[in-house]
């Protein structure tokens, strides 16, 4: 679907009441629009798109200029990489926990069909919060791009990231697609892995 893989087996993407949250757009709505084209209601989130206000992009796609985090924060300043150098955090970015966003949009009692995270290294902390809170256990499909960048997460936090990765598996998420990208440089290795998971133990 656009640039992400989604599993449609056994009616996992229902024709009615399909709700998708897509975090990390960078002006590319191809996944979001593809999911909307099959009848899903899609909410697209990206706090770095400073020149884009909240708006209804199409009949079923809604853009919100906020990000996801493991805490509610109106003044979040991201680590600086090649992407953030082009999108500086002027006065900080607004970020919210997933449960806060669900409340803000009136979706607390609705079922998320697909949750997508492409948030440049912050997926480790966010996923840990989703696991600790138990909110991830109700999500049928979890699409995430895992990042290990030059200095992020910091080296001392890499064991926590590894633990988070295996906690996702232990919760019952089984991947059905992996797309990896490794970029070795003289003194370090950049790794990005786009992984699509199916929740085999959904409540």
TrEMBL record:
It comes from the Eukaryota. This is Methyltransferase domain-containing protein. InterPro entries: Methyltranfer_dom, METTL24. Residues 6-177 form the Methyltransferase domain.
